[in-house]
């Protein structure tokens, strides 16, 4: 049944219409057991639509209520926060959610990094990690960035500074050595 709704959701242009559909889906779940994959797709589509209509609050409330937080739903929320990234709180919430995903054992894939990188430029991503003291996330992001653009020494410098801020001096030496000796 939810398969019928999925193509309709992205075309919804009024918040009240989306809220009605969301309410219908919640009521339907009370009476029928749906395939978890279908349910995941539905919640992800509704959350994304809420965000596209400018209601991150509704998207966040939906996310908070869903019991099983899958990679798809988490990525929908991260993309939603970053798409609305004009506000610093949403930017921070996206990275906080990504960090929680990593701690819960989710394995990021290329889609995960594309969602993160497409919403902000590469240096801003690393700088956000530096500002928030998240050396682990910076390390993951930097390795991907260095794979994509190894000629940009700024990524090495910023990663080195992040390690220094975290007092990870062996890592600082490891990052700076190739720069120092031209390797």
TrEMBL record:
Q: Which GO terms describe its biological process?
A: RNA modification
Q: Which UniProt keywords apply?
A: Repeat
State the PPR repeat positions: 70-108
Pfam families from the UniProt entry: E_motif (PF20431), PPR_2 (PF13041)
The terms under GO molecular function for this entry are: RNA binding
KW Repeat (keyword) present:
yes
PROSITE patterns from the entry?
A: PPR (PS51375)
For this protein, the record's Gene3D superfamilies field holds: Tetratricopeptide repeat domain (1.25.40.10)
Coiled-coil stretches: none
Protein name, please? Pentatricopeptide repeat-containing protein
Per the UniProt record, the source organism is Dioscorea zingiberensis
């Amino acid at each position: 049944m939810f398969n019928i709704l999925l193509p309709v959701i992205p075309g919804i242009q009024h918040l009240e219409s989306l809220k009605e559909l969301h309410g219908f889906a919640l009521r339907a779940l009370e009476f029928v057991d749906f395939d978890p994959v279908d349910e995941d797709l539905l919640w992800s589509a509704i959350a994304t639509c809420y965000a596209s209509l400018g209601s991150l609050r509704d998207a966040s409330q939906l996310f908070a209520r869903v019991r099983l937080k899958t990679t798809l739903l988490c990525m929908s929320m991260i993309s939603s926060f970053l798409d609305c990234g004009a506000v610093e709180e949403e930017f921070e919430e996206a990275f906080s959610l990504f960090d929680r995903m990593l701690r819960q054992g989710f394995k990021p894939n290329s889609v995960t990094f594309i969602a993160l990188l497409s919403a902000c430029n590469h240096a801003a991503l690393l700088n956000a990690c530096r500002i928030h003291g998240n050396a682990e996330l910076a390390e993951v992001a930097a390795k991907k960035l260095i794979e994509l653009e190894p000629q940009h020494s700024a990524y090495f410098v910023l990663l080195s500074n992040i390690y220094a801020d975290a007092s990870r001096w062996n890592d600082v030496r490891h990052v700076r050595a190739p720069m120092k000796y031209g390797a």
